[in-house]
Amino acid sequence: MTLKETEQVVTRFAPSPTGFLHIGGARTAMFNWLFARHHGGKALLRIEDTDKARSTQEAIDAIIEGLDWLGLDWDDETVFQSERAARHAEVAYQLLASGNAYKCFATPEELAAMREQQKAEKKPMRYDGRWRDRDPSEAPEGAPYVIRLKTETGGKMTITDAVQGEVSVQNSEIDDFILLRSDGTPTYMLAVVVDDHDMGVTHLIRGDDHLNNAFRQLAMIRAMDWKEPVYAHIPLIHGNDGAKLSKRHGALGVDAYRDMGIMADAMFNYLLRLGWGHGDDEIISRAQAIEWFDLSGVGKSPSRFDAKKLQNLNGQYIRDADDNALVELTVPWIEKELGIILSPAQRELLAKAMPVLKSRAKNLIELASNSLFLYKNRPLDLDEKAQVLLDADARQLLASIHSALIDLDDWTIVATEEKVKAIAEAAELGLGKLAQPMRAALTGSTSSPGIFDVLILLGKKESLNRLADHKN
Ligand code: GLU
Question: Which of 46, 48, 203 for mutating ligand 1's site (highest number of atoms within 8 Å of CB)?
Answer without folding.
Answer: 48
